[in-house]
Structure formats: structure tokens, C-alpha cells
Design goal:
The complex is a heterodimer of chains A (186) and B (202). Chain A contains five helices and seven strands, in the order H-H-E-E-E-E-E-H-E-H-E-H. Chain A is an alpha/beta fold. In chain A, strand 6, helix 4 and strand 7 form a beta-alpha-beta unit. Chain B is α/β, with parallel strands linked by helices and 202 residues long. Helix content of chain B is 38%, strand content 15%. Chain B has a five-stranded mixed β-sheet, covered by helices on one side. In chain B, helix 2 crosses helix 3, helix 2 packs across helix 6 and helix 3 crosses helix 4. The longest helix of chain B has 17 residues. Chain B starts with 16 loop residues before the first helix and ends in a 7-residue tail after the last strand. The mean pLDDT of chain B is 84. Classes of the chains: A alpha/beta (186), B alpha/beta (202). Chains A and B meet through helix 2, strand 1, strand 2 and helix 4 of A and helix 1, strand 1, strand 2, strand 3 and strand 6 of B. Strand 2 of chain A pairs antiparallel with strand 3 of chain B, so a sheet runs across the interface.
Chain lengths: 186, 202
């Protein structure tokens, strides 16, 4: 092609009396210092603007919501097989079995108390049901800690439910005061 | 060499080729092993858990709730963002300009009520980040979150949902989000946590 021939002429000019010069066969020494600087700059950029993503997830399955009017139709959990866990504001934690205020106990998160309680409950109950009722002002972290603990234990069924007036009454009977629960949260 | 007795006349040449190779190897590693931190998302400190389940990378709608309870949304798949916005616009009977649609598909996350979203999309990056978020409304009178979720499910069937909240987000804000989801028959979702190693303990 015409263009290619012209290029050939440019790259390897044939002057008068000189033989056609070919491309030099010696290895070309390039100074790589600049490239290394660039590479490290890129590296630093990527190291600083990205995060090693390690998040994992807890899978939740919620029950189909029941209408408030049909609350009576919902099968009530038999008192003797229910363990209610109530995360409270200020990282407090209360639990009780069944519906009586006598065995309301306070636990702490960091100790193995919750774990021990779950194990004990599983051992003495034949169809255990764990219900978590977070107080609206409790932290999200409290709920996650409890669910994590439940997932680690042998508990097969648990539910996350609302903290309602009857629960507040049980706690109040045991001496734990909390403000009245508003039905409309927002 | 008899000539170079004692001292070198030239400075030593260091062959940088292997170092460049190594540097690019590291760059490639970091490029592939990490994902970009999203600058517009709220500052979230995730709670810890021992869960072994990894966060899904695709087909995920993330509902982020920050410390104050402001709600942000983020759709993982780029190609569905524009239809999602259009769907929402048709529900609310609004017009969306092409530039706004373009800007929206670039966004990884947003947290504004719909009427504020349109003008916000026209701002440039810096102004967008500087703008104070009001969160997406999810109260009973005006549950935009609910409509966003419905719209997302209709443009992308098989969409999965995840809730990402700060450690100290009050439960009542989470409750609103969960109730909104269950009311729309979204019963399976994930809670995003950070991997707990032995040192953090429980």
C-alpha cells in the first residue's frame, strides 16, 4: 500500500550511498523509575479508596403479618413453652418465661448468661419457643446480638414481635419501669 | 576489567523491571479484591455477628438506616435503576428529565423524599454530597419507602432485600422499615453485619 511504503521510507531512510538501515538489534535500555512511581501511586490510590468488604448477613424470615383486628385468631403460644427476651434501652436486657412476672430476670450481653439461659430453657421445655420483643428505644445492636446468640444455640424456632402493653405490664409488675408504649410509632 | 580499577565511572543501573511487575501485581490484587467505598452513604457502624453467610453482591436492594433513623436506598444492579426511577415517577405522576435519569443510574445510593430528589439529581457531585439528607419518608401517612420497594420488585423480580443499620439505630426506626416490608409481603431479608472475630466477643 502506498501509505505503508511511505512509512517504510520514513523509518528506514535510504540516503545517497548508504545501505538500507534496519531497526537496531540492540536491546533498548529504558529507565523504569517513572513507571514504578506511577504504579505505586495507583496502588496507594486503590488502597486508600477501597475497603476490604467483610460484611456478612443474618437471614431473617418474618411471619405473614396479622391484622390487628384478627389478633384473637392468632394461635397464642402456650405459656409454659415461651421464653420472652426483651432488649431494653441503655443496653439492658430482661427475660422471663411464660407470662408471670415472678421470673423476670436481668441479664447482661457480654457474659455467657444469655447463652446459658437459652440452653437451660431448651433442656427443660419440650417445644420451646423464643420470642424477642425489642423495646422501641433499644439499640439495633442489642437485637442483632440476641439473634446471633439464638442462631448459635440449638433453638429452632424464634420470633421477633412487638413490645406491647401486656409485656410492659409484666415488666412493671416486676419493678421495671418503662414509658407507656405508643401504638403509632412514627 | 583492568580499566575499572578502584571506582566506577558510571552510576549503577538498577533493573526496575521486577519491581514494576510486583507493583502491578499488587494493584491488580487490590482492584479485584475490594470494592469502592460509597461516599454518599451515611456513616454506618455495623453491629457484629458470627454469621457465615456472605452478603449477596447482585440483585440486592439495600435499605440503610443511619443513627438518626434516616433511610437510604441503594440498588445493586445498575441496569435496573433507570426503570426503577421511571416506575416510581409514573406512580407519583411526575416527569423525569433524561439528565436526571442518567444521574440516577450513576448513583449507588440516595436518601431523599421524591420531591427533593429531582432537583438534587441536577446538582453536581460535590453539591450532592454537601446536601443534607432528609431520608426517605416511611411514616404511616406518607410511606414513600413502601412505593420504592413495590417499584423495585416490579422492575426486578427476584430482588433480594437487606437492611443495613448502625449499631445505635433505635429499634423503632428499624421497626418501621420491617413493618413496611412485611406489609408488602417481603418476608425474607437479610441484616447486614460485620464478621465478628474472637477478639470482639459478644
Amino acid at each position: 500500500m502506498k501509505e505503508f511504503d511511505e512509512f517504510e521510507e520514513f523509518a528506514n531512510p535510504i540516503g545517497e550511498g548508504r545501505r538500507k538501515r534496519t531497526v537496531s538489534r540492540e536491546s533498548v535500555f529504558t529507565d523504569m523509575n517513572a513507571m514504578v512511581d506511577l504504579a505505586f501511586l495507583l496502588l496507594t490510590f486503590f488502597m486508600l479508596t477501597t475497603t476490604m468488604t467483610k460484611p456478612n448477613v443474618i437471614e431473617l424470615v418474618m411471619p405473614v403479618p396479622s391484622d390487628e383486628d384478627r389478633a384473637e385468631d392468632v394461635q397464642p403460644v402456650k405459656e409454659s413453652r415461651a421464653l420472652t427476651i426483651v432488649p431494653f434501652p441503655n443496653d439492658e436486657l430482661y427475660i422471663f418465661r411464660g407470662l408471670s412476672a415472678e421470673n423476670v430476670r436481668e441479664l447482661s450481653y457480654d457474659s455467657g448468661e444469655l447463652k446459658a439461659e437459652l440452653e437451660d430453657f431448651m433442656a427443660v421445655t419440650d417445644e420451646p419457643m423464643v420470642i424477642v420483643k425489642p423495646h422501641p428505644d433499644s439499640n439495633y445492636r442489642n437485637l442483632v446480638d440476641i439473634i446471633d446468640e439464638i442462631n448459635q444455640s440449638a433453638v429452632r424456632r424464634y420470633a421477633i414481635d412487638d413490645f406491647r402493653e401486656p409485656d410492659r405490664a409484666i415488666l412493671a409488675e416486676a419493678g421495671i419501669e418503662s414509658s407507656a408504649v405508643k401504638n403509632e410509632v412514627e | 576489567m583492568a580499566r575499572n580499577r578502584g571506582f566506577f565511572k558510571k552510576t549503577p543501573h538498577l533493573d526496575m523491571n521486577p519491581m514494576v511487575d510486583m507493583a502491578f501485581l499488587l494493584v491488580t490484587f487490590f482492584l479485584l479484591a475490594t470494592t469502592f467505598k460509597l461516599p454518599e452513604q451515611a456513616d454506618i457502624e455495623l453491629p457484629y455477628s458470627y454469621s457465615e453467610v456472605d452478603i449477596p453482591e447482585t440483585n440486592l436492594l439495600t435499605i440503610t438506616v443511619d443513627r438518626q433513623g434516616l433511610i437510604y436506598l441503594s440498588l445493586s444492579n445498575h441496569e435496573f435503576r433507570r426503570p426503577w426511577l421511571n416506575r416510581m415517577a409514573s406512580i407519583y405522576d411526575m416527569e423525569i428529565s433524561r439528565e436526571a435519569e442518567e444521574a440516577f443510574s450513576e448513583l449507588s445510593g440516595f436518601g431523599l423524599p421524591l420531591e427533593e430528589l429531582k432537583p438534587w439529581l441536577r446538582l453536581d457531585r460535590k453539591e450532592q454530597l454537601a446536601h443534607k439528607s432528609r431520608g426517605i419518608p416511611a411514616d404511616t401517612l406518607n410511606n414513600e419507602l413502601s412505593d420504592w420497594l413495590i417499584a423495585a420488585r416490579s422492575v426486578q423480580p427476584g430482588l433480594r432485600f437487606a437492611i443495613k443499620a448502625d449499631q445505635v439505630t433505635p429499634y423503632r426506626k428499624l421497626d418501621r422499615v420491617i413493618k413496611t416490608m412485611t406489609a408488602n409481603r417481603i418476608l425474607r431479608f437479610n441484616l447486614v453485619t460485620e464478621k465478628r472475630t474472637e477478639d470482639e466477643g459478644i
